[in-house]
Write a structure and sequence with these properties.
The structure is a homodimer.
Chain A: E1 13-19, H1 22-29, E2 36-38, E3 47-49, H2 55-63, E4 72-73, H3 81-90, E5 95-100, H4 110-130, E6 135-140, H5 147-159, E7 163-168, H6 183-191, E8 195-198, H7 219-240, H8 242-245, E9 251-253, H9 260-272, H10 275-279, H11 290-296, E10 298-301, H12 307-317, E11 322-323, H13 343-356, H14 361-374
Parallel strand pairs in A: 1-5, 5-6, 6-7, 7-8, 8-9, 9-10, 10-11
Antiparallel strand pairs in A: 2-3, 3-4
GO molecular function (chains A, B): carboxy-lyase activity; hydrolase activity
Keywords (chains A, B): Decarboxylase, Lyase
Protein name (chains A, B): Amidohydrolase-related domain-containing protein
Amino acid sequence: MSASDTSSAMRVVDIHTHMYPPSYICILESRSTIPLVRSFSQDPNPRLILLQTEVKVLEEATRDAAASPPGRPLTSHYASLAQKIHFMDTHHIDISVISLANPWLDFLDPSESGQMAESVNNEFSTMCGQHPSRLYFFGTLPLTATLDTVLSSISHLKDLKYCRGVILGTSGLGKGLDDPNLLPIFEALAAAQLTIFLHPHYGLPNEVWGPRSSEYGHVLSLALGFTMETTIAVTRMYLSGVFDKVRQLRMILAHSGGTLPFLAGRIESCIMHDGQLVREGRVGKNRRTVWDVLKEQVYLDAVVYSEIGLRAAIDASGADRLMFGTDHPFFPPLTTDEQGEWESVSLNAAAVAKAVGDGSAQAKAIMGGNAIDILRLDEDA
Amino acid sequence: MSASDTSSAMRVVDIHTHMYPPSYICILESRSTIPLVRSFSQDPNPRLILLQTEVKVLEEATRDAAASPPGRPLTSHYASLAQKIHFMDTHHIDISVISLANPWLDFLDPSESGQMAESVNNEFSTMCGQHPSRLYFFGTLPLTATLDTVLSSISHLKDLKYCRGVILGTSGLGKGLDDPNLLPIFEALAAAQLTIFLHPHYGLPNEVWGPRSSEYGHVLSLALGFTMETTIAVTRMYLSGVFDKVRQLRMILAHSGGTLPFLAGRIESCIMHDGQLVREGRVGKNRRTVWDVLKEQVYLDAVVYSEIGLRAAIDASGADRLMFGTDHPFFPPLTTDEQGEWESVSLNAAAVAKAVGDGSAQAKAIMGGNAIDILRLDEDA
C-alpha cells in the first residue's frame, strides 16, 4: 500500500527535529566564543548560547552573577535519545528524520571537521539503528575541510542505511550558497540522492534590530532573522543558476521557505524589470522562474505556525511538497510541563488541519505521506 | 452612494505612486553621495542613484566612461505631473494618492529640512489642486529637524486640503520606529487623522547579499531588502508597544506588509516561547497580538505581484484593508514603450482578479473602494 493512499491511517513524520549528540556538546563546552555551552550560577542547567545577538547578554552574565543567564537551558531534550522517543510518543509522531542542530560543524578548524563529521554521522546512524523504522537522519558535512574531504563525507553518508540527506546552513564554504565552488558538492549530493535540508543559523547583522533589541528577547533574530536568511540564501542560489546547473538537486527549505512563497512574485517582477539582467539577456522566454523551482526542486517544511502562511506555501509549491516538522528541542513550553504536549507542535499541526481540512488526503500527505514518499522512509520497512 | 456599494462602477485608486518634484531633484543633483542625480556620457538621461548597494557601480562609472551607468534613467515619469496623469489615464486609474519617493528628507541637514518639507508639501498640494478629485497626497515630514518643527509640519499638513497622510521611512529620527522619541509624532499624526504610509528605503546591510551580488542587478535589494526592512520596522514597533500606546495610529504598509502576513504566525510563536518575555510578564492573556494589529491598525497595499502573496495579505488583514497601488514611476517596462501599459501594474491588477475574482465586490474594494473610504477621497467630491 502506498504511503499516500488516502484510505490508510495517517502516519506522522517529523522532518524538522534536531539533536546535539554528547560528543558535539563536549565541543561546545570547550569553546569561549559563541556558539558555546557554559554553566552559570543563575541556572541549574548548563546554558546553550547560539546567537550572535546574545554577545552582550553573555558578557553581562559572565561579569555579574545576578544578571539573567544568556541563551537557553540545555535540557535533556537536546542530547537524549530516550527523550526524543518520549517526545515522539507524546505527539503521536511515527517517524522522525533527525538532524544535528545549528551551527553544525561550520565553526570547526579544517583539520578537525572531517573526522568530526564522520563521528557525528556515525553517532546519528547508530541512534537510528536503535529504533529501526522510527528514526532516519540528515547527515552533516565538514564544510570547512577540503573538497576531497567533503566528497568523502558524502560517500560515507550514501552508505549509511538510515541517512536520507544532509542538513546545510547558509554560509556554505563561507561565502554563501551561490559560491561556484559548491557546485561539485551539490552535484555529488544530487548523484547520491541525498536531499538537502536548508536551515538558517546566521540571521541578519545585529545592527538591523536597532538599539532596543535586547528588550525583545530572541524574537527578532528567530522570527525574522532566520526566515530572511533562508530566503536570501535560496534567492542567491536561484540567481546564480545553481538550480539550472544541478537539475537533480533537491532541497527542503526550513520554516516553509522563510518568506519565499510570499515574496516569489516580487522577486520575479524585480527580475523582469531589472535593467542589468535584461541587458545581459538573462530574462529570456525559456527561463525557469522562481515558481518553477519551487514546484520542481524545492520542498518546504510546514513549520510556519499559521494556516495563512501554510496556505501560501502550499499554493507556491504544492500540497505534495510540504512536510510536517516540530523544530524540537527548540521552543519548549514555558508555562507547562516539558514532558507533556508542546504548543509549538500543536500550532503547526493545527495550521495543517485549518489549511487543508482535518483528516483530509492533503493533511495526511503533509503530516507524513509526503515525507515517506519523498525521503523513501518505507524502503527498509 | 457609498464607494463600497458593489452595484456601482469600479473606481480605481492608486495609493502607492511617487513623484520627485523639480525642487527635490535639484537637491539630489547637488549631492556627491547617494542618494544623488548625476549625468554620465553613457546615457542621454541623467541617472537617479538611490541604493547603497550601488556605491561600487557609481565609483566605477565615475572612473570609467565605458562602464555601465549606475542607478536608473531619470525619465519624465519621475517629475512631470502631465506624465503622471497620462500614466493614470493609460491604466484607467481614477484617483492617485501621490507621495514623495525615497529617501524623502531623511538625509537633509536639520537646519534645512523644516523649510524643505514645507516647500515640498506645498508643491504636492498645488499639483493636487490642478487636478481636483483625481489627485490627493501623502505629505513628507522633516524628521531630521527638532520635534517642534516636525509637529509644525504636521499642523501644516492637516490644513492642506488634499493631504491624507504622510509617507514615512523606517529610520524615523535615525534609530528606527521603536524609538520612544517618536511617540509625540505618532500621537500628533493620529490626532490629525493623518494615515502613515510606511515605505522602505534602507534595505539590509550590503554584506548579506554576498560577494557576487553585483551580478544580480537590483533584485536582491529591491525584492528582499525592501520587504524585509518593512517587516523588521513594523515588528520592532509592535514589540515596543507603539500600537498599544497610540491606539488611533493608522498605518499602510508598502508591498503588502513586506513579509508580515507570512511571518505573523512565527512572530507570535516566538513571542509565546521567549523566556525573557514570559519572565517579564509580557505574554499575558490580554495582549493584542500581531494579528490583532494587522486587523485593527494596519492597512496593506496590494503591491505584491502574485495572487499567492495577495491572498495571504487578505487573510491576514481582511479584504476591506487592502488597497491597490502601482509603485509608479519605478519598474517601467524595459522592452516595450514606456508610454503604453506597464506590466508591473497589470501584474498587480491581475493578482487582485485572481485572488478574489475579477469584478467581484472584493476586487472593487481593493482596486479603489477601500482607499476612497479609508482615506476619505470623496469628502470634497
